[in-house]
Specification:
The complex is a heterotrimer. Helices cover about 55% and strands about 5% of the residues of chain A. By secondary structure, chain A is mainly alpha-helical. Chain A folds into two domains: about 120 residues, no CATH class; about 140 residues, no CATH class. In chain A, helix 5 runs parallel beside helix 12 and helix 6 runs antiparallel to helix 12. Chain A is elongated. In chain B, helix 2 packs across helix 4, helix 6 runs parallel beside helix 8 and helix 11 runs antiparallel to helix 12. Chain B is built from 16 helices and no strands. Chain B folds into three domains: about 70 residues, no CATH class; about 90 residues, Tetratricopeptide repeat domain (Serine Threonine Protein Phosphatase 5, Tetratricopeptide repeat), CATH 1.25.40.10; about 120 residues, no CATH class. By secondary structure, chain B is mainly alpha-helical. Chain C starts with a helix and ends with a helix. Classes of the chains: A mainly alpha, B mainly alpha, C mainly alpha. Chains in contact: A-B, A-C, B-C. Chains A and B meet through helix 5, helix 11 and helix 13 of A and helix 4, helix 6, helix 11, helix 13 and helix 15 of B.
Chain lengths: ~325, ~300, ~110
């Protein structure tokens, strides 16, 4: 790796001594500007870094070598960093995160397979079940007599299993979801969604770890507890550095959670995505009959349960009762 | 003009546009068809609306082009495209024989795929148009048996029953719509209208049954204005029904709502109608969007019964 | 049926409108919190002062929303009235604020 320089056991040590030159707080005799500091810098410090990274020289922090800090000097740490860190780490990560978000959005749209059209009997089974639910939730919208006659009809039909796709399968155990093609479809969709989340995240995290690990790139404007140290300063194994100094991976995490507003501006709110979905569904109306009966559920049992729910409904308060008084009170 | 502003023009047009309105909309065809196709949902919605307008005004060449672009994008076997194609065929048919041909096509499509809801709906409207009313109703009944949670089918069924003066069936169908859309104030007002017409239809005009129907009608109307403050049809209905209830020949013994309240409701509805009519005529803020025909009818009502 | 249920049932809330309203509010919030983050970063606020700045800033934005966007009548647009607006504001934008705050703090100050 570095044939002419001293041999180091690990990259961390390099960092400790040369990258994070910790300047004690009031005694910054060199002033604030990095360029100036660079003039006094012994050439030795360069070589080590050049050996590790084949990047243009302006990439590298050019700071004086200082003795490693001791425990007592932790308060008011100040680290002078090269602005090149921003150009070569911060912005690439941010841009990549944004582009991945955009890519994920469109890839999700692309991978969304339209649900298989259902056959007439399956639609009938699902929609009549929904009918029962609607009657139960909106019972108060219709007069008592209308409600009772509907209830009696539906309870009888539900119990007899009139709406079932195949009435003979009533007593059979539900099919194994793995062998059911519809169930497989639903699972595939779920898996695609998960993949769209996991794959880019792993790839980007790996990329950041491979390229940018071991840099302190920024200081958080707020303090954190020591517990965050291992996460936020991963790759920078300095014991005494303030937790507020964080490595590139933490910027990745910040981007992961904080870029939502940016995406809403670029992709025009989640709304845009939703509306595309709505349009696609509008174009094939059967597609939006969502899977009401999940894989592994027995429709016959659900119908019986719904019939029971309807049967035990006793309270009925017609919404039109006393409406004339309500309106008169309002005027 | 952008797609959104064009689409808004279509959206702001009434559901049953007058010929001049349709003409104005269909004359937008060149500017819409010249826009680059961005494949946005708005643009396809715009195409669909434009297709209907051009067919209304007889601009068949534009309609053909629109349909071509839609089917290029979504495929000829798309259920919705098939229905739009059907609308085009119906509109360009010149005699009943051609319409029968279209009807036969619909039947063939549905034989292959009974779940093609848009085409099934087209077939029902065509049946109704060809005066096969009972066939249309039975086809619609099969459709609501297949999918009893489709509000559109139920309200269409209510309309067909209403046309045949089968009021209780129409009321039943509209109640189904309310189970699906409990906040649909226009359906509440429609229930009021049907109850009122049903009361009118009963011959002896002072019986208990009539009063019951009128009161039910009043209550439905009241609910519609409770859900939507400025609903013109609701107030119009309240005023008409209360006026009917206050007629001297209806005996007080059958009533459940006391006369004094009916009186108050009548005057309240008059005030509201008056506000809406003047507000709409002067173009006041908050009174935009009323159907001009409805406002004119309300004005007439106010003039005849002060 | 208790009084609240009854009220909700007689004067129903249409979910579509509710969703559209909250979307509008959250859009305004995410924009304003990002801008607040930029301001805080440039001002060089640290720790508690930064968060205090965010809190005051969002409260100010909420007031603006209630008075101008909602025309001073928040209870017409969301069931909880102005409380809903503020709650959505404070919780929704924190991450965006922290992101831009950190970025501009790093760019300008450190």
């Amino acid at each position: 790796m570095c044939p002419s320089g001293p041999i180091f056991s690990g990259f961390e040590i390099v960092l400790d001594y040369y990258v994070l030159r910790v300047v004690q707080s009031p005694a910054s005799i060199y002033g604030q500007r990095h360029t100036k500091l660079h003039n006094d810098e012994p050439p030795n410090a360069y070589n080590l870094h050049r050996l590790r990274f084949n990047l243009p020289p302006f990439f590298l922090p050019r700071l004086p070598i200082l003795p490693p800090p001791t425990m007592a000097q932790v308060v008011g740490q100040q680290i002078l960093r090269d602005p090149a860190l921003f150009y070569w780490i911060l912005f690439p990560i941010t841009i990549v995160m944004i582009l991945t978000g955009v890519l994920r959005h469109y890839a999700t749209l692309l991978l969304q397979s339209a649900p298989k059209p259902l056959e007439a009997k399956a639609i009938r089974e699902q929609k009549n079940y929904l009918h029962g639910i609607n009657l139960r939730t909106n019972a108060n919208q219709i007069p008592l007599s209308s409600f009772t006659s509907r209830k009696n009809y539906l309870v009888q039909a539900f119990q007899a299993g009139n709406f079932l796709k195949d009435p003979d399968a009533k007593n059979k155990p539900p099919a194994n979801p793995m062998s059911d093609p519809n169930g497989m479809d639903a699972m595939m969709n779920m898996m695609k969604g998960n993949m769209m989340m996991i794959v880019p995240q792993t790839v980007i995290m790996g990329w950041i770890n491979a390229f940018f690990s071991g840099f302190v790139i920024m200081k958080l404007p707020f303090p954190l507890t020591i517990r965050f140290k291992s996460m936020l300063q991963s790759g920078v194994m300095t014991r005494d550095m303030d937790v507020r100094w964080v490595s590139s991976l933490s910027w990745y995490f910040l981007c992961l959670f904080g870029l939502r507003p940016v995406f809403t501006f670029i992709l025009g709110n989640d709304n845009a995505a939703d509306q595309t979905m709505a349009q696609v569904q509008q174009m094939n109306p059967q597609a939006n009959t969502q899977q009401l009966f999940g894989p592994g559920q027995d429709p016959a049992k659900m119908y019986l349960a719904e019939a029971e729910n309807l049967e035990v409904m006793v309270q009925h308060e017609f919404v039109l009762d006393g409406i004339e008084d309500r309106i008169l009170a309002r005027i | 003009m952008s797609v959104t502003s064009l689409l808004n023009r279509f959206k702001s047009a009434s559901a049953n546009p007058t010929p001049s309105e349709s003409l104005a909309l269909s004359q937008l065809a060149p500017s819409i068809l010249n826009l680059t196709i961005t494949d946005s949902p708005e643009q396809w919605a715009l195409y669909e609306s434009l297709l209907l307008s051009t067919l209304r005004t007889g601009d068949d060449t534009s309609a053909r082009l629109i349909l071509q672009r839609l089917s290029d994008r979504f495929g000829n076997d798309n259920a919705r495209i098939m229905a739009l194609q059907g609308i085009y065929d119906e509109a360009t048919a010149t005699n009943n024989a051609q319409l029968e041909e279209v009807l036969k096509n619909y039947g063939d499509v549905l034989k292959d795929d009974p779940t093609n809801i848009p085409v099934a709906k087209r077939r029902i409207t065509l049946l109704h148009h060809l005066s096969k009313k009972s066939e249309a109703i039975s086809a619609l009944a099969t459709l609501v048996d297949l999918n009893p949670t489709d509000a559109e089918s139920w309200s269409q069924l209510a309309q067909y029953y209403f046309e045949l003066s089968m009021y209780s069936q129409a009321i039943f169908s509209l109640e189904e719509v309310l189970l699906i859309l409990p906040n649909a104030y226009n359906i509440h007002a429609r229930l009021g209208e049907i109850n009122y017409v049903a009361a009118e239809a009963i011959g002896n005009s002072a019986g208990k049954e009539v009063v019951e129907k009128l009161e039910a009608s009043l209550k439905w109307y009241l609910r519609s204005v409770e859900l939507c403050d400025g609903y013109l049809r609701g107030y119009y209905g309240i005023k008409t029904v209360t006026a009917k209830l206050l007629e001297s020949k209806i005996s007080a013994s059958h009533r459940t709502i006391p006369e004094e309240k009916v009186n108050k409701l009548n005057s309240a509805a008059t005030v509201q109608l008056h506000d809406i009519v003047t507000g709409s005529e002067k173009g006041k803020k908050g009174f935009a969007g009323y159907d001009l025909a409805e406002v004119a009818a309300a004005k007439e009502l106010l003039e005849t019964t002060p | 049926m208790n009084a609240e249920e009854r009220d909700l049932f007689l004067n129903p809330i249409v979910p579509e409108n509710l969703i559209a309203n909250s979307k509008t509010i959250s859009d305004l919030h995410s924009l304003s919190s990002s801008l607040l983050g930029i301001a805080a970063g440039i001002l060089g606020l640290e720790s508690y002062t930064g968060f205090l700045f965010y809190l005051l800033g969002t409260l100010f934005v909420s007031t603006l929303i209630v008075t101008f966007v909602m025309g001073g009548k928040p209870e017409v647009y969301s069931r909880g009235g102005w409380k809903d607006v503020i709650a959505a504001d404070v919780t929704g934008g924190v991450m965006g604020f922290v992101l831009t705050w950190t970025l501009f703090f790093g760019l300008v100050r450190v």
